[in-house]
Structures are given as C-alpha cells and as structure tokens.
Write a structure and sequence with these properties.
CATH superfamily of chain A: Aldolase class I
Number of strands of chain A: 8
Largest interface: A-B, 37 and 37 residues
Low-confidence stretches of chain A: none
CATH architecture of chain A: Alpha-Beta Barrel
Strand content of chain A: 5-15%
Radius of gyration of chain A: 17 Å
Distance between the termini of chain A: 47 Å
CATH class of chain A: Alpha Beta
Structural class of chain A: alpha/beta
Largest sheet of chain A: 8 strands, parallel, barrel
Number of domains of chain A: 1
CATH topology of chain A: TIM Barrel
Number of helices of chain A: 10
Mean pLDDT of chain A: 98
Shape of chain A: globular
Oligomer: homodimer
Chain lengths: 247, 247
C-alpha cells in the first residue's frame, strides 16, 4: 500500500475497526515469562544491575532482556547459549534522531549481540504528517535488522497520538515490514492501555506482534493486555508477574 | 589530571568547595536573550513548531535554538546568516548509547549545521564508577566537535547524582576539555537548582561555562541561576523571560 491508500484505510478503520483476530491461547503459570521482555532502561542503571537482570532472565526464562544500547554487549555475553534474547532500544525514547543515526545505532547493537530492536517512531515527523519520512525511517531500521536475522518492534508512544493517528501509525509499521508495534517507551505521558492494545491488534491483524509496555506492574495488568491482543509484555516487574503466575 | 587525581580532588572539594570565582556582569534588559538557548525538545514537536521557534530566536536574538537532531538541518537552514546558533542534543536524554554512536550522531548534527552540541554523560557507567568510560565518551564527542569548531556542553543530570558525584562529574568534563557543564535534560527527576549551579561554578572555575536547564520558567528563575554562576540558560520559556526583562 502507498501512503494515500494507508490514509484511506485508516479513515475506514476510524469509522469501524476490523474484528479482533483469533488470539493464541494465553500462557499459563510460569510460561508467561516467555511473553515478557525483562526491562531495565533507567539512565542510572549500572553494569551490576544489568547483570542482575540477566541472571533473573535466565532463572525465569524471559523472552528477552530489554536494555539501553550501552549495555548490549554485556547482556549479550551473559545470555549467550540461553533462550533469552538481548533487546536494544533505538532512538530512545524521543525517536527524534536522523534515520542514518538510527541505522548506525541498530548496526552497533546488532554487532554487540542484540537480536531484538525496539525503535521509536519519528513522532515529530508523524505529527507533521510527513508520513514518507516516518515510513522510510522504519524501513531503514527493519532492513538492517532483518538482514542480520533480528526482529524490529516499533514504539508508537500511543499516549501522544489521536485515535486516527494510532491507526495510521500501525499501518505504516505493517507496510514497513516491522515485526511488532509497541505501545509506549515508558518515558512518555502514558503507558499501555487495554483500549490501545485492542486497537493495535485489530489494525495489524494476526501476523504482526503487539507489545504492551509502560505501567504493566502485575499479573492482572499483563493478562489484561494479553486478552486484549498483546503477545509481548515489556515490564520491569517481570519477576513479580511470574511469581504471581505460579502461586 | 588522571582519574585517581580527579577523585582525590573531588574528596577535597567535598570537604570544602573552592570560592565562587568572579562572575561576569549579569545581562540587563533584552540582552538576557544572548544567555538563553531557546529550547524545544518534545518528541511530538513538528517542523512548523521548529520554524516558529527559529523565528522567535531571530526576533529576540537568543544564543541558540536547542532542538532534537532530526530538526537540525531545518533549523540551521532557517538560522543561516544570523547570530543564532543551532544546538543539537546527543545521546539524549538517557546518555546510555555507545560512544561510537554518540560520535556519529554528533558528526551528523555538525554536518547538518549544528555548532553547539549538548551531549548526555553516560550516567550508568558513571554510577558504576567506570570513570574512564565516562571520560573517554566525553572526549570522543569533544574531539569531533572541536575539530569542526563546535562547542560541547555535557549534561550531567544532577538530580540523579550525590553531592560528591556532582563534583566528580564536573571534574571529568573539565578534564575532557568540554566547554560547558549543564545541569539537566529536562526529562529527568529534577531540573536546575541554584545549589547545583553554585557547586558547578565553584568546581569548574571561571574558564568553563555552566548551563542551567530544566524548570527555568521566569526571569526570576533565570536571574537566580545567573547569580549562582550560570552563563547559559536552557528554557522553553525564553520569550516570556525576555519579555519580563524588557518591561
């Protein structure tokens, strides 16, 4: 689809969203860990805190450890030989860097061992309706990531978008071949909501992933997101969530 | 000074700070604009909002326009032939990217027309006491910026640091040849305080700049920072501050 077609479809979806596709069976017990990106993105996080997060990730078998690019080589080294992936954030959390810099940041993260890339959409370009800029920015990161077998989640910072914009953003990500849409950075004015996850899942359909991140602190929160259509949760409270799930 | 010497000096300063050096005459009336970086760093800022900020900067003759890297070419084009500089933020606001990526981001901003670079210190490495990493990270950006005649301000995110750490951070910036220390990103847990600016000015002495940013909203705020030792103010309320100064 080209951009006029995307905007036309978004108009239609704004009148009536597609049906919610059939969702996979939600995880039970400790299996919920496989749906969680164990996350530590605070700027003051130290190497020893990253080591601790990686230890927890191995213990509980989380999907990934989601960390800032500086700590990617450390985490990837610690997680080598396990099923836990290393997830790096790109253009984070503002999304307002040049595409060339996002690409270099992605390449450096991939070289350091990341296999999941959570990039922030260029929100300012999006708000200015420069949709080809937004699309090309995502495409550029997706290309270099896919070339090296990594997946890309695009953070939309849903709390900053209108309902119609949320739909347009999801369709741009789908068009760019991204693997996931993700609700929030955790640094914006709001986190994941059930309503947003529902909209995202309806718009992207069953082939793409939906990651709910920001403010997911309990098992109840996580399951609400999963029932709304999320198949990945970003949370710093992963250990608490798994412990709740197994008791 | 090597790092053990820096830490020793920080210990001494933690007992007793050096005297406040003689400060330049504070600006009067509309001249305060020359001390202000007119700032718009919201991720949802659009090109037309950046254009407006640049227009205001030309009208009031601010020191610079401080914007995200994506908008540097736009702003630099609009400000060409004026005294208003284009200031780009690097590794912003978390500071937790690889030095190589900070360097590329700086080079891309310089190529786009930025002549002031506000980089965020690697706060996590600092908290983990990896001071040589922190020093080399700053040095790398300072080198490429100075090579092209640009200046570097290092954002310390003071609200995350202990009193002793604040001193160490200032001394590392001085050692790296940075041009300014800057209090805050505006995205952290706190903004500029008079106490922090006083400490920074005493530690760096009279040869380096001190930029107070984050929460400076009125002329009174700005003058308090300047009287404490700041010679640059970062604010989104620059127009209001100048208007207050000339009435």
């Amino acid at each position: 689809m080209n951009i006029p077609e995307i905007l036309k479809l978004a108009d239609e979806y704004n009148q009536e969203l597609p049906d919610l596709p059939e969702l996979p069976e939600p995880p039970s017990g400790a299996d919920i860990a496989r749906w969680i990106d164990h996350t530590l993105l605070k700027p003051q996080a130290t190497a020893s805190q990253i080591e601790e997060v990686c230890e927890e990730a191995k213990t509980y078998n989380f999907a990934s450890v989601c960390i800032t690019p500086f700590f990617v080589p450390l985490a990837a080294g610690l997680l080598q030989g396990t099923d836990v992936k290393t997830c790096s954030v790109i253009g984070f959390p503002l999304g307002a860097t040049q595409s060339s810099v996002k690409v270099v940041e992605t390449l450096v993260s991939l070289a350091g061992g990341a296999t999941e890339i959570d990039m922030v959409m260029n929100i300012g370009a999006f708000k200015g309706e420069d949709y080809s800029q937004v699309l090309n920015d995502i495409l550029a990161v997706v290309q270099v990531a896919h070339n090296q077998g990594a997946i890309v989640k695009v953070i939309l910072e849903m709390a900053l978008l209108t309902r119609k914009e949320k739909t347009v953003a999801c369709l741009l990500c789908k068009q760019a071949g991204a693997d996931f849409v993700k609700t929030s950075t955790g640094f914006g004015p709001g986190g994941a909501t059930v309503e947003d996850v529902d909209l995202m899942r309806r718009v992207v359909g069953s082939e793409m992933g939906v990651k709910a991140a920001g403010g997911v602190r309990t098992l109840e929160d996580a399951l609400a997101m999963i029932h709304a259509g999320a198949n990945r949760i970003g949370a710093s409270a992963g250990v608490r969530i798994v412990k709740e799930a197994i008791t």
